[in-house]
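User: Reviewer 2 asked us to show a designed sequence for the structure in our supplementary figure. I'm pasting the structure tokens here. Could you produce the per-position amino acids so we can include them in the response letter?
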């Protein structure tokens, strides 16, 4: 879809030309009249020619793109080509879900080289690049032409086991040392250091000690650590509520990534429902965020979603379906936490050495309900 946009400069130019021609008629002087007519023809020819050329270019425009996820960034490579072999600089706006820090500061040359846009990841989960808007302005900046092009590319942003994703310029909240403890337990409890046996995996080598004694030293561990086999996670809209641009769900996914591959049972409790999942090394943790987001966005009014999308996309909102809006927009009703029924359900699942991932507000609700947490490992998200 293409559209023509003009600023007030066009109107001002034609008003000035009309006044100039009227002055010539009123003064019975041919010079202003002929000058006004000549400038009118020049500017009209300029605008119509430019509009015709750019309309043909945008209408036949072909976009080739490639998306690569590189740790904390999404690299979008774009090539814009048109049968009309003119090199025209264009301004590009990316329309993305809030998981990505997209902006309007991208440029591409139509029929030019491939351009790479480095988009910083903000949150874990299933992100989406919905579309791009290509805008072309004439050299005078008076008239513009644009086209809305759907991409609809979903990007799973999985939590890393070793690198905490920086969001909003700050490290993710939470007790990082506690995460390290979980990782130690996964490998087995530390017992002692010993000489390295070359039949052991290299991951057992304790490199700091090996460098100190100038010999390979390995770590002896117990057969199994104290890894929780049952993890209970709050699964309410409150998990999606950003606090200083950080969300509890992101921190929870980081903790789960440390335990991933141990085939533990994850119990998701919230909204009066219970979901039991077996988490293996192949389980997508990003899907947990998406499914919760779909539940919460489903609680919102469809017309309100359309109104929010209109404020972002403008007239292009008609190009996007309701299902696409549900994936693109972010829920706003994120203040709801555990219900009384959810609290009772959690109390039934808690057992010795289980791990509970819960927001601070919901943790306080468990305390008020006199739920016994003495034998439970509790991680208060956002602390």
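Assistant: Here is a per-position design you can include in the supplement:
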């Amino acid at each position: 879809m293409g559209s023509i946009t003009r600023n007030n400069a066009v109107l001002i130019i034609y008003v000035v030309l009309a006044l100039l021609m009227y002055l010539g008629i009123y003064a019975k002087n041919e010079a202003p009249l002929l000058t006004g007519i000549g400038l009118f023809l020049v500017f009209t020819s300029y605008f119509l020619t430019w509009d015709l050329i750019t309309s043909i270019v945008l209408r036949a425009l072909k976009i080739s793109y490639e998306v690569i996820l590189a740790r904390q960034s999404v690299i979008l490579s774009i090539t814009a080509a048109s049968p009309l072999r003119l090199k025209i600089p264009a301004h590009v706006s990316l329309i993305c879900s809030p998981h990505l820090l997209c902006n309007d500061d991208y440029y591409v040359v139509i029929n030019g080289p491939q351009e790479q846009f480095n988009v910083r990841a903000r949150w874990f989960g299933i992100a989406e690049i919905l579309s791009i808007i290509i805008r072309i302005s004439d050299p005078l900046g008076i008239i513009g032409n644009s086209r809305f092009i759907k991409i609809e590319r979903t990007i799973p942003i999985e939590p890393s086991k070793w690198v905490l994703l920086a969001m909003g310029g700050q490290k993710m909240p939470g007790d990082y040392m506690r995460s390290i403890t979980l990782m130690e337990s996964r490998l087995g409890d530390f017992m002692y250091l010993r000489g390295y046996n070359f039949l052991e995996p290299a991951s057992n080598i304790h490199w700091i000690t090996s460098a100190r004694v100038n010999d390979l030293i390995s770590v002896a561990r117990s057969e199994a650590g104290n890894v929780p086999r049952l993890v209970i996670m709050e699964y309410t809209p409150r998990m999606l509520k950003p606090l200083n641009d950080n969300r509890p769900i992101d921190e929870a996914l980081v903790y789960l990534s440390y335990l991933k591959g141990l085939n533990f049972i994850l119990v998701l409790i919230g909204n009066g429902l219970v979901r039991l999942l077996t988490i293996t090394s192949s389980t997508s943790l990003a899907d947990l965020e998406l499914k919760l987001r779909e539940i919460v966005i489903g609680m919102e009014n469809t017309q309100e979603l359309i109104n929010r999308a209109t404020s972002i996309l403008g007239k292009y909102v008609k190009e996007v379906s309701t299902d696409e809006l549900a994936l693109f927009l972010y829920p706003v009703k994120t203040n709801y936490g555990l219900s009384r029924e959810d609290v009772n359900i959690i109390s039934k699942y808690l057992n010795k050495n289980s791990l509970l991932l819960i927001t601070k507000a919901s943790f306080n609700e468990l305390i008020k309900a006199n739920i016994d947490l003495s034998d439970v490992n509790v991680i208060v998200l956002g602390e």
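For the response letter, you might also mention the following. DSSP finds ten helices and 15 strands in the chain. The mean pLDDT is 81.
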